[in-house]
Design goal:
By secondary structure, the chain is mainly α. The protein has 14 helices and eight strands. It folds into three domains: about 1-150, no CATH class; about 150-310, Four Helix Bundle (Hemerythrin (Met), subunit A) (Up-down Bundle); about 325-420, Glutaredoxin. About 60% of the residues lie in helices and about 5% in strands. It has a four-stranded mixed β-sheet, covered by helices on one side. A two-stranded antiparallel sheet has the order 1-4. Helix 2 (about 30-55) runs antiparallel to helix 3.
């Protein structure tokens, strides 16, 4: 049999058989499965990016016909991703992370020269291997390590956003282009620069809701979007106070929007199909799971919040005390903002002087969610307050609270003269909390 066929078959089926045999011998636990899944979702886009870099710099060459994506055999691509994602978690979970990464990297260094004639190594192939280590293997195993140990939730949430975004906006279109033997990315270059910039900004705004939902899962639910690492508490705050499935809605909108920008009907169809999937099987599966985990609390929430069509006003759990937003009465700009909030019909939100905080002196505008979640301050607190007004303000709040944007806005606010200052707590305050008439 042709050696090239054997190499391509072995590159996929050997990792598949190893993983299957290990799973049959020792079924993986729930968190192991979650770790494998997140590592695999990181591998797929990062390996494809590595291949695009390889096409430019020539670390290695692939000699194969048929079943290619960016000139890389799909079987090698999937086998490489599966091996690096699953084998460490299944066979090396008791070893230190650094040793696991070193062992898998050494295995790859041994395997690559054996893949000829499908893979032809050039004198610069070790540079490509180094890039694979730092771009693909190490981040994926760090992601898996955090997931398996249920640690660094903030880091996991960021990596979920990156990997999911790359799967939706990059891997999926690339897969469609590979199947159809064409490319639609060139269509972006034909658009006027100003038009393209506006369209990409609009696409980013469509994704805000999904990113904010991942952030809310981590901050208020103690979990992530994947079912194997789901939130430990029912999340009904933030964007979830307006719509029950913000990530599915955001995914469908982003895919449809990307298809429109690229003028590609197949990508638009994927967006529509994701909507149909969410309304069908995903809806039924989610309902069974959530009912089993949260019972009547979830049923009460879903009676008030629709899965795909948002409310205009937020739903607030009646069993939870109102949230509190504290403003310093002795700060002129803060007082103006307090009066602005007091004039709005905020749902489940009390506006109080910072001087009346029950336990400590405050240094910034402070938001107490009232449900035992940590307090937030500054721009993040202001955004939390906006979530209690209506959908328009809540969408702006979701944008304001994103990881890079929120610190940048806080820095601008501090530079504008409304930075932190200590507000001494008092026992009595005679300032009216009502809006001026």
């Amino acid at each position: 049999m042709d050696r090239a066929i054997l190499i391509r078959a072995a590159s996929l089926y050997v990792p598949v058989m190893v993983v299957a045999l290990v799973c049959l011998q020792r079924p993986p636990q729930r968190r192991q499965m979650a770790a494998i899944l997140v590592a695999f979702t990181w591998m797929l886009p990062s390996l494809l990016i590595l291949q695009i870099i390889n096409l430019h710099f020539g670390f290695w060459k692939f000699h194969a016909a048929g079943g290619l994506i960016r000139s890389m055999p799909v079987d090698l691509y999937l086998g490489w991703a599966l091996a690096w994602a699953a084998i460490p978690t299944l066979l090396m979970r008791r070893l230190p992370l650094g040793l696991v990464i070193a062992a898998m990297f050494a295995l790859d260094l041994l395997a690559m020269p054996l893949c000829g004639p499908v893979v032809e190594l050039t004198p610069r192939w070790l540079i490509g291997e180094a890039l694979a280590l730092f771009m693909v293997l190490a981040p994926a195993q760090l992601f898996a390590h955090w997931t398996h140990g249920d640690s660094n939730l903030a880091g996991r949430a960021v990596m979920h956003v990156i990997s999911s975004g790359m799967l939706i906006l990059f891997v999926l279109p690339e897969s469609i282009f590979a199947v159809l033997h064409r490319s639609s990315w060139d269509g972006l270059a034909r658009l006027p620069h100003g038009v393209l910039s506006l369209e990409l900004q609009a696409l980013g705004l469509l994704g805000v809701m999904g990113v904010s939902a991942v952030q809310e899962f981590a901050a208020r639910g103690g979990g992530t979007p994947i079912p194997l690492d789901a939130p430990k508490k029912l999340v009904t705050t933030g964007v979830f106070a307006y719509i029950a499935n913000p990530m599915q809605v955001s995914c469908a909108l982003v895919m449809t929007g990307l298809g429109i920008i690229l003028r590609d009907g197949w990508i638009v169809a994927v967006g529509v199909m994701s909507l149909i999937y969410g309304l069908g099987f995903a809806h039924w599966d989610e309902a069974e799971d959530m009912r089993a985990r949260f019972g009547s609390h979830w049923e009460q929430y879903r009676r008030q919040v629709r899965p795909w069509w948002p409310r205009w006003r937020p739903w607030r759990d009646p069993s939870v005390p109102p949230a509190r937003l504290y403003f310093a009465e002795t700060c002129g700009p803060c007082s103006e903002v307090r009066r602005w909030f007091a004039a709005r019909d905020s749902a489940g939100l009390e506006i109080l002087p910072a001087e009346l905080h029950p336990s400590r002196d405050l240094r910034r505008i402070t938001y107490d969610p009232g449900d035992d979640a940590p307090e937030e301050n500054g721009i993040a607190a202001l955004a939390r307050g906006l979530e209690h007004i209506h959908l328009g303000w809540a969408y702006l709040a979701a944008l304001m609270r994103l990881p890079i944007i929120c610190p940048a806005l806080q820095l601008l606010a501090d530079a504008s003269g409304v930075g932190p200052r200590t507000i001494r707590r008092t026992q009595q305050c005679e300032v009216s909390l009502q809006a001026p008439r």
